[in-house]
Specification:
Layout: H1 2-5, H2 7-12, E1 20-22, H3 26-35, E2 44-46, H4 52-56, H5 66-75, H6 83-96, E3 108-113, E4 116-122, H7 132-145, H8 149-158, H9 167-178
Parallel strand pairs: 1-2
Antiparallel strand pairs: 3-4
Length: 183
């Protein structure tokens, strides 16, 4: 999982995630973790079978939104696995697949910073996840937006950039000076 490989990067930025919320039960989670030994166990929580967590944040079922499903299918990337790992993945997936409507439930990614949701992404299909760098950029922009105007202006001045405008304009200017390829 790309997220687990990037845990050192997350920690370096003061991000305490990821935290994975899964559907299912403890037994299924244990099987999943046994077959995915590189995923730290302490990152997982299990949502109640009635899925209040998923429903509460507005996650839908597969095919509830065809535009989202098509977008998700285009974003889907196959994991880099050996042939043996693929066989193991298929065996585990068949064993773990919910036998009810849970197999159709989609998830997503939220980035929480202090009291704000700084990033939200809803899956279009199972396994459709955002690029982790996109999520990290959202955290960085949030950190910049929490700077005092005097600090923003000092940082912009240091870079030889204009220091006039509303705070949101200063935040965008500084962020884009640091990450010119992001929009």
């Amino acid at each position: 999982m790309q997220w687990c490989k990037r845990i050192p990067d997350l920690r370096a930025q003061g991000i305490m995630g990821p935290c994975f919320v899964s559907l299912g039960d403890y037994k299924a989670l244990q099987l999943f973790l046994e077959t995915n030994k590189d995923i730290p166990r302490d990152l997982f929580l299990i949502d109640d079978p009635s899925m209040p967590g998923y429903v509460g944040v507005g996650f839908k079922n597969l095919f509830d939104n065809n535009d989202l499903t098509l977008k998700g299918a285009k974003n889907l990337k196959a994991p880099e696995l050996s042939f043996g790992d693929w066989l193991n993945w298929v065996r585990t997936a068949v064993t773990l697949a919910p036998k009810d409507q849970g197999v159709l439930r989609l998830g997503g990614v939220f980035g929480l910073y202090k009291d704000a949701v700084v990033y939200a992404y809803e899956e279009g299909v199972p396994g459709d996840v955002p690029d982790i760098d996109e999520v990290l950029l959202a955290f960085e922009k949030e950190k910049i937006s929490r700077l005092k105007i005097s600090k923003l202006k000092a940082m912009l001045k240091e870079k030889g950039l204009p220091v006039d405008g509303k705070k949101i304009e200063l935040v965008d200017r500084l962020f884009l000076s640091i990450h010119p390829n992001s929009q």
